[in-house]
């Protein structure tokens, strides 16, 4: 086995850790980041800006962009330890925490990371079903008239999205979903641009810029403080990709060193992301002022141009198909890796079966992957159906995860590595 491993590394079919050669590039990395970061949260930024006002709103968006980049910059140096070029690879955020900060931090940091990812999956189920219902309602209003009831539920759409994700979840890992990230990134650009364009058109139609320096007035100081913190939580939720930086970085080929590519990709992606965030947030607030809706697209109604709103919502749905996978794959990898170590001789865990369908390439199926990933998708879909307003809590969840994971990542990158004299088993 050792001879075969050395031959494969020398022959170029494997990397230095024995894993299949990584093929990720700067642009595939940018696509992964944009898919992870630009989620449906971009549509709530106009509301967040309206709560903070014309000064604090844009400044807060820029500050979160800077904090996210610093976090990603530092975390990218944690992929290899102790040397960022030839050191041993850390395949996940949890690996980096365990190597540098010890197991106690690993449990706490891991709990927050995976809870945040799980919550994001639930939110994506809810958001997707809402967008699908919005398409049906706009078509109903267009056909039946603006006074038609057009009341529809979301349960069917949640189940439909869950079925799609059961299939998509059989994608083995990050290395095999580059195409999905590219499609999702294009969709995120599209609906963000539509939201920005409609906001700009509304400002031109109004002939003035709405809003104020202090933002939307509240009935009391306590209520205003609550709304400001909710807005900050929504903005924090819109910049969440730091928790999967190392997982994305593990897809990159070398040379050049992975950390250099990751830093460049983060700079490009955050610049693009922040541009769209500022455009959607500021033009949305300028268009609606104190009446800025929680979802920017709903502010333009379900009426004309109904086809454009339909198209934007369809883009959101396609984007969230990929976004769900971006936040689910690290959880899949962690659980399946734990089972592989716990049951090294289990055929249920380790055996793969090849299937070939007509007109489609063959694919490999693993029973553990099929059962666990299906159960995971079913659980997120089920919770979304039971608590359809669960996404209102994600601002708090995003703020808590952002508030702990960011300093945790910074600390682990500045601490001296511990236990690195013992080479990790990377095969």
Helical content stands at 55-70%
Structural class: mainly alpha
The CATH class turns out to be Mainly Alpha
- Mean pLDDT rating: 77
Shape assignment: globular
Radius of gyration: 23 Å
Number of strands: 4
The helix-strand sequence is HHHEEHHHHHHHHHEEHH
What proportion of the residues form beta strands (DSSP E)?
Answer: under 5%
The main sheet orders its strands as 1-2
CATH topology: Hydantoin permease
CATH homologous superfamily descriptor: Hydantoin permease
Q: Architecture, according to CATH?
A: Orthogonal Bundle
Whole-number tally of structural domains: 1
List unreliable stretches of 5+ residues: 1-10, 414-427
Main sheet makeup: 2 strands, antiparallel
**What is the overall number of helices?**
14
The N- and C-terminal alpha carbons lie at a distance of 11 Å
């Amino acid at each position: 086995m050792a001879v075969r491993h050395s031959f494969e590394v020398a022959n170029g079919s494997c990397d230095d850790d024995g894993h299949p050669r990584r093929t990720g590039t700067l642009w595939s990395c940018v696509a992964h980041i944009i898919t992870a970061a630009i989620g449906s949260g971009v549509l709530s930024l106009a509301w967040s800006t309206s709560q903070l006002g014309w000064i604090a709103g844009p400044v807060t968006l820029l500050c979160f962009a800077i904090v996210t980049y610093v976090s990603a910059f530092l975390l990218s140096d944690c992929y290899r330890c102790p040397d960022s070029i030839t050191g041993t690879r850390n395949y996940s955020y949890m690996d980096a925490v365990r190597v540098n900060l010890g197991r106690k931090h690993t449990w706490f940091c891991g709990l927050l990371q995976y809870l945040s990812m799980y919550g994001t999956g639930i939110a994506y189920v809810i958001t997707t079903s809402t967008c699908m219902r919005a398409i049906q309602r706009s078509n109903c209003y267009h056909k039946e008239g603006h006074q038609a009831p057009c009341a529809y539920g979301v349960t069917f759409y949640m189940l439909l999205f869950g079925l799609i994700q059961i299939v998509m979840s059989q994608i083995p890992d990050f290395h095999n979903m580059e195409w999905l990230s590219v499609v999702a990134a294009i969709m995120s650009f599209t609906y963000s641009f539509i939201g920005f364009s409609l906001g700009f058109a509304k400002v031109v139609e109004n002939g003035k810029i709405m809003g104020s320096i202090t933002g939307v007035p509240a009935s009391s100081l306590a209520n205003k403080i609550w709304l400001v913190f909710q807005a900050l939580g929504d903005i924090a939720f819109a910049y969440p990709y730091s928790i999967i930086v190392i997982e994305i970085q593990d897809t990159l080929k070398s040379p050049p060193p992975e950390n250099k590519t990751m830093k460049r990709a983060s700079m490009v992606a955050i610049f693009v992301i922040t541009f769209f965030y500022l455009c959607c947030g500021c033009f949305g607030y300028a268009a609606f002022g104190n009446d800025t809706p929680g979802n920017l697209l709903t502010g333009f109604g379900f009426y004309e141009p109904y086809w454009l709103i339909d198209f934007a919502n369809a883009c959101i749905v396609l984007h969230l198909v990929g976004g769900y996978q971006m936040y689910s794959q690290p959880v899949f990898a962690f659980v399946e890796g734990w089972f592989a170590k716990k049951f090294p001789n289990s055929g249920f865990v380790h055996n793969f079966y090849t299937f070939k369908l007509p007109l489609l390439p063959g694919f490999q199926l693993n029973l553990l992957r099929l059962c666990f990933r299906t159960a995971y998708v079913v659980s997120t879909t089920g919770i979304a159906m039971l608590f359809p307003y669960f996404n209102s809590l994600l601002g708090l969840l995003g703020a808590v995860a952002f508030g702990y994971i960011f300093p945790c990542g910074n600390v682990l990158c500045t601490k001296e590595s511990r236990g690195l004299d013992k080479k990790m088993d990377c095969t």
